[in-house]
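Late entry, written up from scratch paper. The run itself happened at the end of the previous shift, but nothing got recorded in the book at the time, so transcribing now.
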Amino acid sequence: MEALSCPKCGAPLQTEMNRCPYCQIGLANSATHPRDPGGAQMDEQAQSSQAAIPSGWMNFKDSWNGFTIAHPQGWEVSTLLGQTVIKADPIGFTSASISPFSSQVPTSAQAIAQQFVGLASQRLQNFQAWQQGNCAPDSNRLTVRLRGVRFGQHLEGIYNILVEGQNCIISGYNAPTQSLGEAGPIMSQILSTFKTTTEKLSRQLVREPGEGAFTLQIPSGWVFRGGVNRNNIGGAGSLQWSVGRDQPGTVMVSMPSYTWAFTEPVLSFFSFPTGYPSLSFMPAAKFAQQVVLSQYRQLRKDVQLITAVERPDLAEMGQWELVRSGYPPGMFETSVALMEVHYSENGIHYHEKSRVSVMRQQGQAMWNALIDMMYRTPQGEMLIWEPVLIGSYFSLQINPQWQAGERGLAQNYINNAQADMHRRQMQISQTLSETSDIIANSYWNRQASYDRISEMRSNAMLGVQNVASDSGDMYKVPYGYDQYWVDGLGNFYGGSWLSQPDINWTPLQPTGV
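Output as recorded:
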């Protein structure tokens, strides 16, 4: 059954609503007919009304972005880059979303739809899209249906697009194809409870004090700490900062930049030490459970793991960031997980979430892991403060001039490292050549010894021994004489130490074989 939609913006509605929560147009008893926004029939109650929240649902309030929305128990709400997503599962296979934004110039719904479909095609395999219903090319609203495969799951979605001048809004939902019919009405009902509020936390802008590397929006009165850490290889700068509601950071978000480096175990006789621990590359969720949690427990004995969930959607975002940074697509293998733990500190029980990432360049033995986002609240307060903490974290704006300087520093380090690597390769090549000579000489010396022993054994059996003249000619003569000679006709003579040979005979010396 198709949900009713607003006649102005196309947003999903319920029959009992008398005002669209998106475009705020008044509605008659039928949700398909608009009420005159300035008419006398619109009373005060109609202006402030919103869809009734079903029993058992949660009413989520985002005081950073300024809205409320209701959803069933177990669903999650997150806002990133202006898009609010309400998810039934961590990845968002079943999810509803609202995305208000502004274009640089007045545009049409058709133009926005083309951009939206283009972006969707980059995320979905076997992608299909079509317009639902007929509307004029210059219409300010339309509905788009999408179909495709994401992370191995077949999905289908319905999205409404509304454009008024430069203001745009895209709202809708997607779900696995086989469950869209069941989940669609629920997500329409979720979207119908969306309501903007004027109750937003006041903010202040802080600037990184050391190098002016970045700016950050934080709630007014909160505590900012941190800056640029250059205690890294090549003097590269890493951002490390935290924002807390109070000095102890009872409610806090941070970019800690915890990093690890490992090398794959090498099953080879010839291997060179790297100085890094040996550990096989693994997914981020497994790394969080085996390595991160173990190190956490060295600091806090009562740490309890709630969950460590693999997040291919976050890994996909990381891949896009690498491509935007100039790396070829597919150059790195990445995995990202969201880890949640409980622990106590100074008598307070905390709930903490961390983003754990692992990355390995294709074909390389070295790989890295890091935690680049972490936030915590006292237990029971995560839903209250999470939107504020995430909103502050993603308000980070890096200074372009500082970033350009860092890229230059990194390039210089790479150039120097490559030159140093070339020198090392030449040294290794020379060492290998010398080692090869040593090995070869050792082989031939050993082989000569084997040959000598074999010939001695043969001579002993035949009763002869080897003798040689001063000119290097070799002969075999009967064994048992002290001295040997050879005349000009090739005849051999043997005698004792008292023998007097002919003056024309050539003396022969035993070779010891």
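The CA atoms of residues 67 and 197 lie 5 Å apart.
(Scratch paper discarded after transcription.)
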